[in-house]
């Protein structure tokens, strides 16, 4: 129930719809009971049991309410029909029809208003989840499968709507329907109603026993759904490799195993859930049968109840079955929805360790340089950087080189604050980056990575990603600096051409030049290039390298290098090994020293 309360907090902005729903549900429940109670005068006319009452009856208290209602209806029927019983029947039928009509009108209006609340909560949960997903650090998603995250924001949120939020329709309507119906039943026959209540707790106990394992089974279903969504996501992302290595059957087998488990878990869950309806209906019919037996005694033997009242009573008893079944189904929904809500709330309540401290400074300029002082960092147990010290002066280009795993990309991740240092500090213009807002810190930086991350949108919108309200002239100018303008103009629709998922319609060099154009348009004072040319052919590398050199002019740059051609002109080359700096200097100085750098140059194995 705690999960339900947490989800219900999202209903705050839509509370007016909730109040309107409650109001019309009260009217629905009241008219639901009255519509069945109105059957008594109609049946009395049919059975010729209507007394001729010529004077208005007097109300004598709640205990005599049934007699007052019967006498009042007899008085109205007598006055309306005179000597023609069909007129009285038409009046009684008209009353029943009117009450049933208003009952259904109020039911529709109540459902109309709750729809806005349900869908509003659904929308806000999804928005909040997406906001949280974007806000959480990169480290969070290195531990989670993407498919599982997708499952949480899609199917789990939908499950919350089907289970938790559907209860909102029942939470007032069904209990009130039962309450008003029971009041009417008591007014007709106290003995019969008390007799009925003996069996209700027995039925409730049997139904509740069935639902105890639903949450556990539901949790398995949702986790398995996240599993096969992850397989689909990985398959789509690596389709070329899968086909190249003839691994289709392996991935199909993995996917099939997952869907088979999902099939078994779903069958088990749904069969258990489906058991609730027939059991509750059968138990209801058992109560109904016992009711007919005992009520028949009251009518036929003890003469405590007239036939019209008994038939109406049976209708009221039947009127309880539908809301009672709905409530029993809702209890299953809560158990099933608990698992989905738990998974959704796990994301929403995840703490972001990389957040702005209170009173963080907004930094809009860059004046002196970047310093890493005694930095230590580890992703898991072992330190990737140890007592790392580096100074990057404004306007200078510093290149980081070294073998794979030496910690080069980690430096870029720490400077952009994708991760926080475990030891030491990183300063910009003498200010610890933890004292700056993340937005202003990253606003000072442009990033070009080895993998050109582009989006399924137009060329224009991909370039303009880093600058809101960029003009077309600015976009074209950035593309020219990145040597991208010519190939863009050769595309079918120029800058309005859609480049496909991940830029799949472009070559590697074209994608990288768009990434550079995006960074150029942002025009940041600090540029970080992470293996920007390592995946390119010689022709593309020449064009990209030319674009990079134009972009780095008058900027502070940190270049993580793979190929020698990208770093020969750097002001400082830093050679790293196992998280430490082993030597640094210009290209010529390091070549003369004939140490680690020269070996790397000779091996031509600059890698990430």
Record keyword descriptors for this entry:
6-stranded mixed sheet, 10 strands, 4-stranded antiparallel sheet, single chain, elongated, 2 domains, alpha/beta, Rossmann fold, 608 residues, ABC transporter transmembrane region fold
What do these coordinates show?
One of its GO terms (cellular component) is plasma membrane. This is ABC transporter ATP-binding protein. It holds the Pfam family ABC_tran. It is found in: Cell membrane. The strands form 2 sheets. The chain has a 6-stranded mixed sheet with strand order 6-7-8-3-9-10, with helices on both faces. Strands 2-1-4-5 form a 4-stranded antiparallel sheet, with helices on one face. It folds into 2 domains: 2-348, ABC transporter type 1, transmembrane domain (ABC transporter transmembrane region fold, Up-down Bundle); 357-444 and 568-608, Rossmann fold (3-Layer(aba) Sandwich). The two termini are 49 Å apart. It contains 23 helices and 10 strands. With 608 residues, it is of the alpha/beta class.
In short, what is this structure?
Keywords: ATP-binding, Membrane, Nucleotide-binding, Transmembrane, Transmembrane helix. By secondary structure, the protein is α/β, with parallel strands linked by helices. The chain has helices spanning 2-8, 15-37, 39-46, 65-81, 85-135, 138-142, 146-188, 190-197, 200-210, 214-237, 239-244, 248-274, 276-300, 307-348, 408-415, 438-443, 459-463, 472-481, 485-489, 508-522, 538-552, 587-593, 596-603; strands spanning 369-378, 383-393, 397-402, 423-428, 431-432, 445-449, 526-530, 556-560, 572-577, 580-585.
């Amino acid at each position: 129930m705690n999960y339900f309360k947490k989800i219900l907090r999202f209903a705050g902005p839509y509370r007016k719809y909730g109040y309107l729903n409650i109001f019309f549900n009260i009217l629905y429940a009241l008219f639901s009971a009255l519509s069945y109670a109105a059957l008594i005068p109609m049946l009395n006319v049919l059975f010729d049991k209507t007394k001729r009452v010529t004077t208005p009856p007097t109300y004598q208290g709640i205990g005599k309410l049934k007699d007052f209602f019967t006498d009042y209806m007899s008085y109205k029927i007598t006055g309306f029909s005179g000597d023609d019983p069909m007129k009285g029947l038409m009046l009684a039928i008209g009353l029943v029809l009117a009450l049933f009509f208003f009952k259904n009108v109020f039911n529709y209006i109540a459902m109309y208003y709750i729809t806005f609340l349900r869908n509003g909560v659904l929308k806000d949960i999804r928005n909040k989840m997406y906001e949280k997903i974007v806000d959480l650090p990169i480290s969070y998603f290195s531990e989670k499968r993407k498919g599982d995250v997708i499952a949480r924001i899609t199917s789990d949120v939908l499950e919350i709507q089907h289970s938790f939020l559907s209860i909102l329709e029942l939470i007032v309507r069904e209990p009130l329907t039962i309450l008003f119906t029971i009041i009417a039943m008591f007014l007709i026959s106290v003995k019969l109603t008390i007799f009925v209540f003996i069996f209700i707790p027995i039925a409730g106990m049997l139904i509740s026993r069935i639902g105890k394992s639903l949450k556990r089974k539901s949790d398995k279903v949702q986790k398995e759904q996240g599993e096969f969504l992850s397989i689909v996501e990985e398959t789509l992302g690596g389709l070329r490799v899968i086909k190249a290595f003839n691994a289709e059957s392996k991935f199909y087998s993995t996917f099939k195993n997952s869907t088979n488990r999902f099939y078994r878990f779903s069958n088990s869950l749904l069969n258990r859930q489906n058991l609730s309806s027939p059991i509750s209906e059968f138990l209801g019919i058992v109560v109904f049968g016992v009711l007919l037996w005992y009520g028949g005694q009251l009518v036929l033997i003890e003469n405590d109840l007239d036939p019209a009242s008994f038939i109406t009573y049976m209708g009221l008893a039947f009127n309880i079955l539908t809301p009672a079944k709905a409530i029993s189904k809702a209890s299953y929904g809560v158990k099933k929805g608990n698992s989905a809500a738990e998974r959704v709330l796990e994301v929403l309540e995840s703490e972001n360790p990389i957040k702005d401290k209170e009173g963080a400074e907004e930094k809009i300029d860059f004046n002196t340089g970047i310093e890493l002082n005694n930095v230590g960092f580890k992703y898991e147990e072992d330190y990737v950087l140890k007592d790392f010290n580096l100074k990057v002066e404004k306007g200078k280009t510093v290149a980081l080189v070294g073998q794979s795993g030496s910690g080069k990309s980690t430096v870029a991740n720490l400077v952009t604050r994708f991760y926080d240092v475990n030891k030491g500090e990183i300063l910009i213009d003498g200010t610890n980056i933890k004292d700056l807002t993340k937005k202003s810190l990253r606003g000072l930086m442009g990033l070009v990575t080895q993998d050109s991350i582009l989006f399924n949108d137009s060329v224009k919108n991909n370039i303009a990603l880093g600058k809101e309200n960029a003009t077309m002239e600015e976009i074209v100018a950035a593309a020219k600096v990145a040597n991208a303008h010519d190939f863009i103009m050769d595309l079918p629709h120029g800058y309005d051409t859609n480049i496909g998922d991940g830029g799949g319609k472009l070559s590697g060099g074209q994608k990288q030049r768009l990434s550079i154009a995006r960074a150029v348009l942002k025009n940041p004072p600090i540029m970080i290039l992470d293996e920007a040319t390592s995946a390119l052919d010689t022709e593309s590398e020449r064009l990209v390298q030319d674009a990079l050199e134009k972009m780095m002019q008058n900027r502070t740059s940190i270049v993580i290098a793979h190929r020698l051609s990208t770093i020969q002109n750097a002001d400082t080359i830093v050679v790293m090994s196992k998280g430490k700096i082993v030597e640094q200097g210009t290209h010529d100085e390091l070549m003369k020293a004939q140490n680690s750098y020269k070996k790397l140059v000779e091996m031509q194995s600059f890698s990430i």
